[in-house]
Amino acid sequence: MPENKPKPTYDLSLSANDFAAWHGPPRRSLLICSHPRSGSTLLGEAIHFAGDLGCPLEYLHRGFRPALADRWSAPDLDSYVTAMHRRRTDPSGVLSIKLFWQDVEEIAHERAPHRFPPPRSVSPDDAGDALYRDYHAMLAEILPVPTFVLLERRDVVRQAVSALIASQTGLWRSIPGVGPREARAPAEYDYDRILGLISFGQSSADHWARYFRAIGAEPYRIAYEDLARDYAGTVGELLAALGRPNSAPPQRMKRQSDRVGEAMVLRFLRDHAARTARD
Predict the structure, then answer these.
(1) How is the beta sheet containing 146-152 ordered, strand by strand?
(2) Per-residue pLDDT tens for 181-215?
(3) Which end of the chain is more exposed for a tag (fewer CB within 10 A), N or C?
(4) CA-CA distance, 198 to 267, in Å (whole number)?
């Protein structure tokens, strides 16, 4: 298991938001398949507060899992999955989760290093359908009877800039009264890191596309831009598709975009155009 052990300050990750003990695997799993800075927390909160659809968090992510594993006394993957089923399956039998492609690769390699390649060592172009089907079989052991929601962000530059700023400031979400409110460091422009984050995001999107094609699944698709523009309508349509017709719950998260981020976006676009012209 990854060694970094940040202490979660996100209220939905704390014991007060565990469900009553569930025995055995969930009846159904809801997977929000996405990439960082695509609105997955906003969508996850909407699903949670709508009720009867679990509490989607990044349970298998390297930055989220260690603190939960410590609280649940689950030092290895098998005991962690058992604890996740027990504490995070809701009374209707639904376990929901936010899942990034990097999580799939890391968990698979941890579970069966002889069978799965190290994370980020195989490009989407080199990963065949058989490998994606193996990933799917591995996930189904942890998250049975899956329903897939694919959440993507069309504007890959703003997605990368948002990821850069969040990693530098430590401010990953903005919810009044929840989590840190002051930046741990200022946000600084870094062309190469933004370019790398764009490439990483595109690779992850390509992996998801090939995964769904290989397993013959068509996920329910949402774009971040639509979610941000029409939160109530986008969430309402999703809830209906999931069999929980209901109006969207109130939105408690605040948008984090600001002048600093927009300035970085414009600077990157200018720099990239200039460098591309030189090449």
Answers:
(1) 94-100, 28-34, 146-152, 220-223
(2) 777 888 999 999 999 999 999 999 999 999 999 99
(3) C
(4) 15
